[in-house]
Amino acid sequence: MNVLDWLRRWTVPALAMCCLLGSAAAQETPAVKFVSTAAGPRPMEEQTARSVVRDYGEAWRALAEASKQSRPDLLGPYFVGAARESLSQGLKNQQKNGMRTRYLNQAHSLEALFYAPEGDILQLQDTADYQFRVLSDDQVVHDEHIVVRYIVLMTPGADRWVVRQIQAVPAQ
Amino acid sequence: MHRSPLLATLTAIALAALCSGQQTGLGISPTVIAGAEISIPAPGTGEATFYLASAAHVAKRKLSLGQPIRLSGQDLSIAGRYVAILCAGSCRSQAFFVTPAAPASLSFVVHPSRAWIGREGAISGVALPFDKFHNLVQDPVNVDFSIVAGGSKLYSASAPSRRGIAWFRAASGSKAGAAQLTASAGTVSARRALQLVASDPCRLQIRATPAPKGVAVETEPIHDCSGNAIPDGTIVTFTANGADGISTVDAPVKHGVARALLASSGNVVITAASGVVMGNELRMSVKP
Predict the structure, then answer these.
(1) Was domain B105-197 assigned CATH 2.60.40.1930?
(2) What CATH number should be reported for the domain whose range is B206-286?
(3) Contact A86 B15 (CB under 8 A)
(4) Nearest C-alpha of chain B: how many angstroms from A7?
(5) What CA–CA distance (Å, rounded) separates B1 from A131?
(6) pLDDT beyond 60 at A5
(7) What is the pTM for the complete model shown?
């Protein structure tokens, strides 16, 4: 059996298995690692860093679920302001066009860049690693593994940190 | 999510096998400024479907090959990573980034809204430049900060934004009153106001006169050590220690003066305090 035969034989079952695992994974809170708390000018307390990691992970879980189902309401309370507006618009476009996007197998490495003197603005850099899939009428039209950098603004809400701005930026 | 190396390898092999017919590259510039229009060459003949996908914008169009695909400024107004996909039998795709346009507004967050005078680092402000589509402008922008109080400049500094953020911290000066804070970057600016309030009283001088049911006490006009009148509502505590025991009254400052009536008789010692400042001590004999 040459390599091409082997690929033909195993491609479909392997992909099916990956898709199943990927689907299950998208519903979990993604892995988020805080690689540095050296942001200034305000020092960040450990408890704040833990909350940020928890809420940022939940925000991505919500985004993955909302994108999977093309439902803006699933963004939940984790996005506000410009971030909520633009993501909601994207999800409405998906609905209108019979498209869906998937963020699978996510892993995020967060670094705090700026923590405002009064603790009301937190800027983060996220190096996100995930599988990005685009589906049209349930057919995959694009599937790629991405490592992309995001600049994120979070602000404290009543009981959690919320994402106010999230912008993917080109590699430096 | 952590996958096993075997699973990762299988995924890569499977996707590579499936996508072996998928070409990459559509001739789009790797970065496009928000709001710009672009044209994507789509050579060939026949029908095709074009997709544009990002977190903030998704589009789908049926088209005929041979005509360039035009993306409007509205399609590309939100900064981020986009994927353009052209499918005609097989699919070709390209990722590109939309980057923010020139600053069109400044978000300016100032703390506090009311600051005691004479404090180092009492006032802080953060400015964030945004383009007209509300994308955070991350290229460095010079932001000029100033604080004007009582007609004179209390603080002035220039700070380059770093990844879309510029900030300052300043002392609160020595004059009570309204202060105007301004942040400006090129042609855009934002203004905020805050109230600078007098610090703790510098000295507390009281006088007392007998009254029908005790002693009427009042302070002289109270100022901080810079000569600013203490704000109305500041509490002064009067205490009378006499034959009847200790009588205490908390009185708010009104028009710079605090007043109280102390129910006490006999030989009375009267004192006053506000915050950490103690007033003079009065001794008098009060008829019951």
Answers:
(1) yes
(2) 2.60.40
(3) no
(4) 7
(5) 11
(6) no
(7) 0.79
ipTM score of the complex? 0.83
Q: Which residue has the higher pLDDT, B98 or B265?
A: B98
| Superfamily of segment(s) B26-99 | Immunoglobulins (2.60.40.10)
pLDDT value for B24: 57
Place of tokens 């908390």: B250
Give the chain A residue nearest B90 (alpha carbons).
A141
CA angle at B149 for the pair B143 and B153, rounded to the nearest 5°: 55
Q: Residue B41 in 3-state DSSP? A: coil
Q: Let me know if A165 is exposed, middle or buried by CB neighbors in 10 A (0-12, 13-18, 19+).
A: buried
Q: C-alpha angle with apex A146: B76 to B13, nearest 5 degrees?
A: 130
pLDDT tens readout for residues B26-66: 899 999 999 999 999 999 899 999 999 999 999 999 999 99
User: Considering only CA atoms, which of B124, B127, B126 is closest in space to residue B170?
Assistant: B124
Of A7, A18, A134, the CB nearest to B7: A18
CA–chain centroid gap for A132, Å, is 10
SS3 A64: helix
Q: Looking at residue B231, what is its pLDDT?
A: 86
CB contact under 8 A, A114 and B31: no
